[in-house]
Amino acid sequence: MTATEEILDEVPWSGVSPDAARRLMVAAVEAFAERGYHATTTRDIAGRAGMSPAALYIHYKTKEELLHKISTIGHAKAVAILQSAADAEGTPAERLEQAVRHFVVWHAGHHTTARVVQYELDALDAEHRAEVVQLRRQCDAAVRRILTDGVKAGDFEVPDIPGATLAVLSLCIDVARWFNVAGRRTPDEVGASYADLVLRMVGARPRS
Amino acid sequence: MTATEEILDEVPWSGVSPDAARRLMVAAVEAFAERGYHATTTRDIAGRAGMSPAALYIHYKTKEELLHKISTIGHAKAVAILQSAADAEGTPAERLEQAVRHFVVWHAGHHTTARVVQYELDALDAEHRAEVVQLRRQCDAAVRRILTDGVKAGDFEVPDIPGATLAVLSLCIDVARWFNVAGRRTPDEVGASYADLVLRMVGARPRS
DNA sequence: CCGACCGGTGAGCAAGCGCTTAGTGCGCGG
DNA sequence: CCGCGCACTAAGCGCTTGCTCACCGGTCGG
What we know:
The structure is a homodimer of 208-residue chains. With 208 residues, the first copy, chain A, is an all-alpha fold.
């Protein structure tokens, strides 16, 4: 099994139990991704899960708690993907290639989840948002570490490492916005293409 | 006056009249950018404009019409920036540099407007959304034209022109999401930096 | 000097929202 | 075969929402 298949096979909330709570979470992810958090009603979520509106409140205190749980699970996965690439063996170019490819494959393959995770952050209340922002900083740190290593080794040519880190993450994250299952590109293709684009952005010397 | 200053000086809705309608539009842009379309109430918009809730409906039929007008004006500006760069004299690299720089300067300098324009599209009703999607296609066409010219001239090395077009626009658009006035970067700096990154992405030969 | 006009207001309607509560059906230990 | 616990529902509460409407005050042509 390839790393790509691993990323796509795993349903992010497979660890959520009981079954009814998971069904509600899946329904919420779909609804939030389609219409946005504020435009989604608790009745809509419960309806998609085949339950009455009140059932939601047996498993979650509020609608916002649902979003918070989704966001936390999603961000944890993002951090795991990027840190795993940053910690991997190999040249900085290989690690950056892996980071971007896996990160993009995840955003494309799970674009409904990713859309919620990346674009509904403002709907969280202050405390929960602060929690999630911490996880995002870890994403930033992982990418920055790879770039720094590459510059130190003389493999990358990057005048502004924080700026380049931001641009790389921004490029990958925005995949969740435009990726469309009906489109011609598979997650794998986008991942490979984006890895190539990013290596060029950081001025990686072609492998000899 | 530099092109950058021109882009930033012009308030996008300076052509909106009468004065009260413009004040309402400015208020709506701020509110939509801060909290999102669905989380913004008509009372909030009217309040920011210093008017009663009912005043909104003298100048706009619905809250959605306000969003539609904002979106149309914003997209028209985006199309103008990109087409102007595509039509400009100069090498493909120079035209691409100008397109990205001006587009990014606009997204950073008017990041509240840009956020609404780029991220609240789904809140439009079907007919209005279709209208705006047409304008977005023109953005795509302008960038694609520059890339095609560059490849034909042998100046760029791009294996997948539609894919690269998408990536370039995606990178620029996402600036509206993360750009923060309190941050250290000015719109000009981000624009210059992003133009450089994009030229690398398309494998532009360094100018001789 | 007047009355038509028009941008703006105060009050409020119908609908829909997040969430609660009293009650129901069902599985399971004794 | 009973009765308890619990996941779940029907009904609905209090509130906010987008939007409306009767009314008001300043301006201006005649």
